[in-house]
Amino acid sequence: MSLQGRVAIVTGAGGGLGRAHALYLARQGAKVVVNDLGIEAAERVAAEIAAAGGEAMAIAASVTDEAGIAAMVSEVLGQWGRIDILVNNAGILRDKSFAKMTIDDFRLVVDVHLIGAAICTKAVWETMRAQNYGRIVMTTSSSGLYGNFGQANYGAAKMALVGLMQTLGIEGEKYGIRVNCLAPTAATQMTHGVLSEQSLRLLDPALVSPGLLALVGDEAPTRAVLCAGAGHFACANVTLTDGVQIGDAADAGEQLVADWAAASDRRGEIVPAYGFTQAERELAAAGMSEEVAAVLR
Fold first, then answer.
1. CA 78: distance to chain centroid?
2. At what angle do helices 152-172 and 103-110 cross, to 10 degrees?
3. What pTM was computed for the model?
4. What is the CA radius of gyration of the chain?
């Protein structure tokens, strides 16, 4: 029980993947806050945890409701005194091709996935900073990492969560806060009708949740993107190629078109440690390496 004594909040935990996460974290010894829109669903999962010998509390609140989430965090701190883990899992789908999608459908999905995760994270951030310990998991998706037809809203929100994770991982590092992403493939209400019955059985959400242990334990990495499904685990990265230096030639655009194969050649690509790596490389290629070094000093 490697999470013994830790306090974890799981949003959207009344069913599906969130329920699997809550049950798994409880089995690892964590006290679990089961958050969901509906109190009945949250209470059922909390009762499952209690029946198995764990500790849980059920709290109904929308992740888009700042006051509701603040009240949830206050209640948890009042009862258990700390918050160690936040799993931002709550989400919805409004799938349509972009041509048929309304801006309202786009905005709603972004609001729940991205803004909801930001609200929940902001609510626990100062607590984690003060205790010099925190583990936060954003739920991204292959739809955001690689695209998926009919999911422009969902994909945009999910890739935005990777960007949020990258920056919070940098800002939280000196406070012992590690921030990672989980990209799950799981059979939930959102995937029924999309996948075959055999695939749905193989993609049991319970086979994703063990990935959390690597992301929220004491030895967790930070700024990792873990892809998990059907018991398989892999890591995704945002990379940067070596590229080509063209300079300020009048025909720079034409030269880039001609050299596109070299610019996009993935041999020697890197995973940048921070965003300024791109500018460093560009300035160095332009002969400004001394200036880059001065900025870094």
1. 27
2. 30
3. 0.94
4. 21
**Chain segment 165-221, per-residue pLDDT in tens:** 999 999 999 999 999 999 999 886 656 666 678 878 889 999 999 999 999 999 999
42 has pLDDT over 90:
yes
d(C-alpha 35, C-alpha 120), whole Å: 11
pLDDT of res. 1 = 83
Helix residue ranges per DSSP H, 147-210: 152-172, 197-202
Residues 6+ apart with CB under 8 A from 4: 28, 29, 30
Identify whether 154 is a catalytic site residue. yes
Burial of 296 (0-12, 13-18, 19+ CB in 10 A): exposed
Q: Which of 146, 154, 175, 274 is catalytic?
A: 154
Is 38 strand, coil or helix?
Answer: coil
pLDDT digits (tens, 9 = 90+) for 101-110: 999 999 999 9
| Residue 261, amino acid | A
Give me 117's structure tokens: 């995760």
Beta strand pairing call for 56-60 and 85-88: unpaired
Longest dimension (CA), the chain: 72
Cβ proximity of 165 and 87 under 8 Å: no
Answer whether 217's CB lies under 8 Å from 134's CB. Answer: no
